[in-house]
Amino acid sequence: MDKHQYWYGSAVKALVLSLTAMLSTPALAADIKPGLWQITQSMDSEQLPEQLKREKTLAQCVSAEDAADMTLAMRKRWQQLDCTEMSIERDGDAIVTSAQCQRGERLLSLSGKVTIHDSTHYSSTMQTSGDATLTTYQEARWVAAQCPHGEQ
To answer: What proportion of the chain, given as a percentage, has pLDDT over 90?
Structure first.
């Protein structure tokens, strides 16, 4: 892998992890239980090294604040990441999102869909496009009402 591919992969991975947390928490908080969630995530791209394609499990805490206004919470987080041209739309049990985000000198286009299966289960797919396309898949399940160590 050349230096350009490594840099691009690292930059995209960092942005995707940040945006994945945004898709997971505020977009769903009014429709799912607040508390601790277990998220199983995988990523796929032609330029992504095999070790980054492996499935991983993350813990995510959904706070009451994020649950209060899901659209506002997502918009605030995307603005913190220099994202513009944001679109967040609800269609039944699906939330469809898109944005453009500046990452260094690169402008990345994002599009995602979150499907709420019930109050304890959701799934999402997000595509990030720049020099290459990266697709992130998630399955999330509610674990507990309380987050560890008082996290919110």
So the answer is: 28
